[in-house]
Request: fold
Amino acid sequence: MNQRKQSKFSKFYVKHIIKKPFVFYGFLGFGIGLFLYLSLTVKLDVVQSVPAEVSGHQITLKGEHDLTTGVMYLYYDRNDRVYKLQVVRCTYEDGNTVCTVEENQGLSGKMDADLVLGSEILLKRIL
Reply:
């Protein structure tokens, strides 16, 4: 009985997949279309990591950086915990960037900062 079902399936497979590969090309086209749609609609943040010194509501970043989005991520260890902070304003002093944030969340000392510079689509990152 199992051999008979296999025989029916093999006949169907040969008739619709091998002799007329429209089903195969349909699945292939659907997969490529889904990949292109998802890779064109998914947006990723472009970030730059810099060392930072945190004291109160002021964060001093080494070098001059342009924060267009107003979002900064601070962390001691990226695998442990990452703090998202909203930047109120930035000034440039002695070749460094000094940013004032809304909430400090009790942070202080030397940390690393990820600065969001913009966003790009996933397809651009892949290619």
The CA atoms of residues 35 and 64 lie 38 Å apart. The helical segments are 2-18, 22-41, 122-126.
